[in-house]
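We treat protein structure as text, and this decision shapes the records that our systems exchange. Below, we set out a record of this kind in full and without editing:

***
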Amino acid sequence: MTVIGIDKMSFFSPQQYIDMVELANARGEEPDKYLIGIGQTQQAVIPPTQDVVTMAANAADEMLTASDRKAITMILFATESGIDNSKSGAVYLQRLLGINPYARTIEMKQACYAGTFALMQARDYVTLHPTEKVLVVASDIARYGLHTSGEVTQGGGAVAMLVSADPAIAEINQDNQYLSRDVMDFWRPIYADTARVDGKFSANIYQDFFKAVWTRYKQKSGRSIKDFKALAFHLPFTKMGLKALRDVLPEASEEQQAALMAEFEASRVYSKRIGNLYTGSLYLSLYSLLANSTTLKLGDRVGMFSYGSGAEGEFYSLTLRPHFRGGLVSGQLEELFASRQQVTIPEYEAIFNNQLSGAADRELDTQHDDAKFVLSGLENEQRQYICH
């Protein structure tokens, strides 16, 4: 039987960030409220020259070969920070990345969950067409507003995944369990550029959904926590995933509890320093786990919990392949963190308020953005993308 799964993974986030201690001091909060209570140490700052399209392109470009670009017959773009109510972000990617023109290009939305649905559609498509490949990107900018309770859980970036037969990283197993309910824990009206959220309510719904789909998964699959080497979580902030993990740790032996906690710490190394990616948060967690764990090996089963407010949750598993670290772009996050520039809180606030918006023509200063793909402005109500 042909194995279908994630062959390559890549990540991009801009080269500016703020320190959570500085943000806490500026907001009159105790730093430990952010460092421990939320579980964040740094937060990516998104300049006006980057949007979800450029971040997705910068992420995907680093991992795709010329043969990949020819073999891709579908691009699935998951985001809740879309730039157009009609045109798919995937169409822009197809052109920017030089991907086969005979490919489907679709954008998907369901809060933070859409990346998982896109990944499952890719798996099912390649199962039927094993000689073809699907590019899945999850790209978002988390915006709650300055001086809001959600400000500490902002951030942004993009995760790109290539789904194929005989993958290098992991097989996507056919064991998904999911749950949907109409819940008003988080939403963004069409007229707003920042999210509306009931933070405590949303955190409770997240845990409720995890416990529900985890229980159903065990019932349907016959598996238990003993079958998992690690559990990866959607991490809008890393303390949220820790709370969910603690809900199921009593099901494991003391030895496995310690092992699962160690793997969780590996999975949140990057999220602590990037912040919230919305659709990409679970997959940055997976990326971090694969890159930072010292004990994962071929055949290990990793549990994946995806959650999107509004609300939808899903639990499924991956089985690691022989060369799972080889499917990651080498040194990618280490280079990002080494080259990032810290900005002051006033500088961050100015950047936050300077995003491209409205219908008027505008030219952006791109000389300080070293990324390959950048947003250079708006002309005739059309976003202008350039390649450095």
Observations:
- The mean pLDDT is 97.
- The longest strand covers residues 155-165.
- The chain is about 35% helix and 25% strand.
- The two ends are 43 Å apart (CA to CA).
